[in-house]
């Protein structure tokens, strides 16, 4: 059963019970009070009548010592008519409880008289001909006679009022219940709205929509829950996103790897197959063998690079403090034989904390890329500069440049901006991916600033702050 | 002569396909760029296009869209092994799929099969006094019909479409029996033996030491 329905049902039950009970109690209370008042009045009337009777009896001419039945009848008649249309009803009985006088309609039994004696007035409530009466009884002493005086007072009004009260109250109760149900329904759905929204959000997320957030509609505990849920969802989305990115990156890598692996393999297998199954002339044999050789070399280069990346990713680097001069001299030496390009080196002296071999690998890769991107004879500037946060290495070329949409992808493994150009220079598309790995070991990253047609500047910053941390770690 | 266009961004692979198909008697042209390929297709009418998917300029799927209305048969050549890539290619209207790396025999066989489907392949191949109707699966020797079993016929087609090519036991076995070859089966030798006897090819169908068999035909 839905929570809002439960809430609604319970509040209706509670409301019905409390309304019913209080209504019953209230109407009954009014009734009891009225009845009590009526009883009092009935008893008063009885007393008045008794007194009137006794007075009247005294006034009877004292012809006899004992009050005659006829006189009693006469007095009673007078008393009844003295009621002046108030519906006064009385009955007078003698000592043996024989009725001497009774008003019209006074038909009740004589049970009450059994309990009445000289000292006690009695009353009871009786029902007679669909009417309710208070019957009172008392003894009257007049001229040596002890008579019983009974009166009847019609109190149907009080009972009718009670019945009416119940009817009205029942209507009010039903009306209140209907109204209450509607209001409680609205309140229940308002209160449970956060739950519904949360449920919806949970379902959406279960269905894979991790971006969905539950709307916060209240500031109570449920609102807090919603907020916490959304925080959880955020964390979940982030993790799922990270996982998906990782999987995507892995898939991309595997796809690119498979492609890059298969291309030289196809050539090697194909040409080897050709050589072993066909009788080829010398020229074709040489061509085939040469292809097998060059494609094999390509595979070799690729596997070495991949191994480098793997090593860079998993090896614990051995950082050393090195003067930057050493690095630049090494580079100058390395590219001395390259006479195609015009290299300019300029650097401010400084020392950096790096894994020397790895940083040299990065620099060589950047220089290689610069050469690949440039026409023979163009300038390539290699700069080292002290900055506020550390030391910046920069390689600038005036070559083809990289389109803005390519810049992001350029450090991905196997990505080549110009495949045929890069292939012809034995590139595997792994150089910058390797650089990115090495730089992340140095808590740095490759910054690329490039304009198509104008050239590219690739730089990275080796931070100073790192060195103290590292030293502390080493000393501790 | 049947003209085939080879589109692959790798020169070595273009040359490889070219060498193989030329030896089987096809005229091949190769391009390494997608846009260039479209230009070539516009200029000349080809009987078959071998198409790589990852290409500079325009990729294989784009070119496929362009080729489709021209009703030229296409075989995709790709390193992508995933089923969804293959399905995409076939849905675009490619006739077959060749996954890198591929065997020479497989390349020739697939090209033959696609051409045959378009009735462009040589239907009747003659070797000496043996005439083979590849589609009707009928063989005659000096005008007299020769009865061959299914496997024998399969072997015969492989030999006559790869004249003067040393065919390896494993590729023969795998092509005809469509099972993995474990190197210990004499079945293949028995079938070749029977084929030699039925066609009188005792001297043409030679065993190549440690390799398999070759159908030698004077060129």
State the total count of DSSP E strands of chain B.
12
Strand content bin of chain B: 15-25%
Question: N-to-C SSE series of chain A?
Answer: HHEEHEEEHHHHEHEEHEEHHHEEH
Structural Rg of chain A: 57 Å
Give the domain tally of chain B.
2
**How many discrete structural domains of chain A?**
2
Please write the CATH class name of the largest domain in chain B. Answer: Alpha Beta
Class per helix and strand makeup of chain A: alpha+beta
The CATH class of the largest domain in chain A turns out to be: Alpha Beta
Shape of chain B: elongated
Mean pLDDT of chain B: 85
Can you characterise this structure?
The complex is a heterodimer of chains A (476) and B (219). Chain A is α+β, with helices and mostly antiparallel strands. Chain A has 2 domains: 3-176, Beta-Lactamase (2-Layer Sandwich); 316-475, 2-Layer Sandwich (Heat Shock Protein 90), CATH 3.30.565.10. Chain A is built from 13 helices and 12 strands. In chain A, the strands form 3 sheets. Chain A has a 5-stranded antiparallel β-sheet. A 5-stranded mixed β-sheet of chain A has the order 7-9-10-12-11. In chain A, strands 6-8 form a two-stranded antiparallel sheet. The model of chain A is unreliable at 467-476 (pLDDT under 50). With 219 residues, chain B is α/β, with parallel strands linked by helices. Chain B folds into 2 domains: 3-117, Response regulator (Rossmann fold); 124-215, Arc Repressor Mutant, subunit A, CATH 1.10.10.10. Chain B has 8 helices and 12 strands. In chain B, strands 2-1-3-4-5 form a 5-stranded parallel β-sheet, with helices on both faces. The relative contact order of chain B is 0.10. The model of chain B has no long low-confidence stretch (mean pLDDT 85). At the A-B interface, helix 6, helix 7 and helix 11 of A face helix 1 and strand 10 of B.
């Amino acid at each position: 059963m839905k929570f809002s329905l439960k809430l609604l049902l319970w509040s209706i039950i509670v409301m019905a019970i409390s309304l019913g009970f209080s209504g019953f109690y209230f109407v009954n209370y009014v009734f009891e009070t009225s009845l009590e008042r009526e009883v009092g009045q009935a008893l008063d009337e009885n007393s008045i009548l008794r007194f009137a009777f006794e007075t009247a009896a005294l006034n009877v001419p004292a012809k006899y010592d004992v009050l005659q039945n006829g006189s009693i009848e006469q007095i009673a008649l007078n008393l009844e008519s003295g009621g002046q249309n108030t519906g006064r009803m009385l009955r007078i009985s003698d000592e043996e409880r024989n009725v001497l006088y009774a008003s019209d309609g006074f038909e009740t039994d004589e049970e009450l008289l059994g309990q009445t004696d000289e000292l006690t007035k009695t009353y009871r409530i009786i029902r007679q001909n669909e009417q309710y009466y208070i019957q009172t009884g008392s003894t009257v002493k007049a001229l040596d006679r002890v008579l019983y005086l009974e009166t009847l007072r019609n109190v149907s009004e009080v009972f009718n009022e009670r019945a009416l009260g119940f009817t009205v109250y029942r209507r009010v109760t039903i009306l209140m219940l209907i109204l209450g149900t509607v209001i409680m329904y609205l309140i229940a759905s308002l209160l449970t709205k956060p739950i519904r929204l949360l449920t919806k959000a949970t379902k959406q997320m279960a269905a894979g929509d991790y971006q969905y957030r539950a709307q916060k509609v209240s500031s109570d505990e449920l609102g807090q829950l919603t907020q916490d849920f959304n925080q959880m969802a955020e964390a979940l989305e982030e993790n799922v996103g990270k996982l998906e990115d990782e999987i995507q990156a892995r898939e991309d890598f595997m796809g690119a790897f498979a492609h890059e692996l298969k291309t030289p393999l196809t050539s090697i297998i194909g040409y080897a197959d050709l050589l072993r199954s066909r009788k080829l002339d010398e020229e074709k044999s040489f061509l085939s063998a040469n292809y097998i050789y060059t494609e094999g070399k390509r595979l070799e280069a690729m596997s070495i690079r991949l191994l480098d990346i793997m090593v860079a990713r998993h090896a614990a680097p051995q950082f050393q403090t090195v003067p930057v001069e050493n690095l630049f001299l090494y580079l100058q030496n390395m590219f001395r034989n390259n006479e195609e390009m015009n290299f300019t080196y300029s650097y401010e002296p400084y020392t950096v904390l790096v894994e020397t071999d790895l940083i040299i690998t990065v620099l060589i890769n950047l220089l290689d890329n610069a050469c690949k991107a440039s026409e023979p004879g163009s300038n390539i500037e290699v700069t080292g500069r002290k900055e506020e946060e550390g030391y910046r290495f920069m390689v600038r070329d005036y070559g083809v440049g990289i389109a803005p949409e390519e810049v992001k992808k350029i450090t991905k493994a196997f990505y080549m901006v110009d495949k045929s150009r890069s292939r012809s220079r034995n590139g595997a598309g792994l150089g910058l991916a390797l650089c990115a790995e090495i730089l992340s070991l140095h808590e740095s990253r490759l910054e690329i600033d490039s304009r198509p047609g104008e050239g590219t500047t690739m730089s990275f910053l080796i931070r100073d702050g790192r060195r103290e941390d590292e030293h502390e770690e080493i000393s501790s | 002569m049947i003209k085939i266009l080879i589109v692959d961004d790798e020169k070595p692979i273009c040359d490889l396909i070219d060498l193989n198909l030329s030896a089987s008697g096809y005229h091949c042209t190769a391009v390494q760029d997608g846009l260039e390929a479209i230009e070539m297709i516009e200029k000349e009418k080809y009987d078959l296009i071998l198409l790589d998917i990852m290409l500079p300029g325009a990729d294989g799927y784009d070119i496929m869209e362009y080729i489709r209305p021209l009703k030229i048969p296409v075989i995709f050549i790709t390193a992508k092994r995933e089923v969804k890539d293959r399905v995409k290619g076939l849905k675009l209207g490619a006739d077959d799929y060749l996954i890198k790396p591929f065997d020479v025999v497989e390349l020739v066989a697939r090209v033959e099969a696609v051409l045959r489907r378009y009735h462009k392949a040589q239907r009747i191949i003659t070797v000496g006094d043996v005439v083979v109707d590849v589609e009707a699966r009928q063989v005659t020797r000096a005008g007299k019909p020769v009865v061959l079993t299914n496997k024998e016929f399969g072997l015969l087609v492989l030999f006559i479409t790869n004249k003067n090519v040393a065919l390896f036991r494993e590729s023969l076995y795998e092509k005809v029996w469509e099972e993995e070859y474990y190197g210990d089966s004499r079945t293949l030798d028995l079938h070749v033996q029977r084929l030699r006897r039925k066609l009188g090819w005792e001297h043409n169908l030679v065993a190549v030491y440690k390799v398999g068999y070759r159908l030698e035909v004077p060129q």
